């Protein structure tokens, strides 16, 4: 909401400056494109975050740099010297507005945890990464909790226990009714970490959990299908020259097919062939199927580049158009690995309730990994996506994927 507000105010001020300085219609149309690229740049460089205590000099210089680059392009096209004044004013407004919003909304919230053991450790580890929270440790004595919350002005009480005793419920409810926000462990992981902790859920939780609309809403599925086809056509058209160049380099670099297919598991555990630009040597699996690794020696030099930039995944646009895959969803895995993972990870099969995707929530939220524990962590993000699906979430993932591609963090 804050980002939308920030973009909206900047857009209004951009139009006001355009009219005030008397820029022509043709120049204004170019300016709209420049404005769009500036906003995209602010997002890609994490310059629209309002949950940090302060911004560094580097942040401000990046804002000025982005404005300068795109306004220089605009000036080079139009040669309108009013744009120099325009650049100074708009760059100043961009910095001033984001600083003003940050000062207005940023507040440090004292937080504590009731509970112990692994759940408390997981919550403490998560809080270390969050800006805006001041963690105050509590000794886990329920009789002292109320006075502790009052003395330390605790605004958020996290529960590091899945099940509470009757006495605990009575005490914590009293605290909650006195204007302290109380959040359970699973709710915290869902709302803050944006994942479903599979180690602590059960069939009863799945039965009572809200969401999962994508599994039964025909309307949402139709909207998603339109989004899939539209994005596949647009991305396919924009990247077609890149695909031609990639195909030529793959052919030149090492012997073997340019594109190879591999059976993966899709919706309802139905197998289908996934298409990719070949990024490994032709004999990569002569000794059988193996997990992909970081710095995998089987990967060619250009294959490594394609993986980082996701270029190797582009042929899967055909899978999306055919309906085997969605543009966004859990990444499809091979049956040989799934059989093993289902034995070790609870509810792993739930990720096959929807179509797999070319990119997904797990891919933009979790770093590279090729272990069972990594597969478990990715499943938790995949289940969040299935539970909380919306077109808005798809768009968020699309932009996060763009950021991943731009900064070469693909895998």
UniProtKB/TrEMBL annotation:
Residue ranges of domain Bacterial sugar transferase in the record: 224-406
Subcellular location: Membrane
Top-rank taxon, per record: Bacteria
Membrane-spanning parts: 5-23, 29-48, 60-77, 83-101, 226-250
Gene Ontology, cellular component aspect: membrane
Key words of the record: Membrane, Transferase, Transmembrane, Transmembrane helix
Membrane topology: Multi-pass membrane protein
InterPro entries: Bact_transf, EPS_sugar_tfrase
Molecular function via GO: phosphotransferase activity, for other substituted phosphate groups
Pfam family, one: Bac_transf
PANTHER family named in the record: COLANIC BIOSYNTHESIS UDP-GLUCOSE LIPID CARRIER TRANSFERASE, UNDECAPRENYL-PHOSPHATE N-ACETYLGALACTOSAMINYL 1-PHOSPHATE TRANSFERASE-RELATED
Recorded family membership: Belongs to the bacterial sugar transferase family.
Protein name per Swiss-Prot or TrEMBL: Exopolysaccharide biosynthesis polyprenyl glycosylphosphotransferase
Native source species: Cetobacterium somerae ATCC BAA-474
